[in-house]
Amino acid sequence: MKITFLSDNKTENSLCMAEWGLSVLIESNGHKVLLDVGASPLFSENAKNLKLPIDDVEAVVISHGHYDHTEGMESFCNINKDAKIFIHRNAISKAYGTDKDGNIESNNCGIRWSDDFVKSISDRIIFTENVVALNDNMTIIGNIEPLKEYPMTETFYRPTHEGRLVPDSMDHEQILVVRENGGLYIFSGCSHTGMMAIISRVREVFPQERILGITAGMHLYPLNSNQRRAIVDAICDLGIEKIFPVHCTGIDAILMFKERLGKNCVIASAGESYEF
Q: What's the whole-model pTM score?
């Protein structure tokens, strides 16, 4: 398996730019799939500079309905005319975060696609829910319930049909699981429902299989140091061989992972590729 980060918050590659977003190109068992498309066309520009074609990508998996994982979709569809787009049936909506004082922000951080654009790609969209087999070794898993002992680290709000803003349960979040090397590799965009909840859900779907790797934004940056440490330690204690903490994990949590795991934690960035 080969993974390449086309969009992330940081880069050390002179051919690439960084942004607050995530896009990962995953190549496994003859399949070529994108997890998310970043916050802008930047991911496709990085791919072009790296001489990595994306016109032959067979599918895009959208992890959840936030702009920093979806705003590059129009650019992708201009390049790739055939790939199917797998997105949760509840994902296409406006959403709003909160500021440091807990006030709901006015900027839409949800999916910003126009109605015309959605209509233009309607024949390519596959709305998902629960568990969907993407191909012979990749599975999309939804219906991830937060755990009581590890609640969601940030509250977002979505509008109802009546226009009221209500807390977002993040029921539109989904992950991609790749089976290779005798085990499972988890790919998550932001892990808003919680990384421990995601691991628990994967074990429900694949109860007899070992989790070998995690590549994920883990949304730990809003937490204080003690809260962050508790989650990092819980993940590290599971004995997972390789962890790529990216995007919204936050640099403090990334360094905690590195401190605990050493070479088994990879500090990845846009433009970098890894094979295992």
A: 0.96
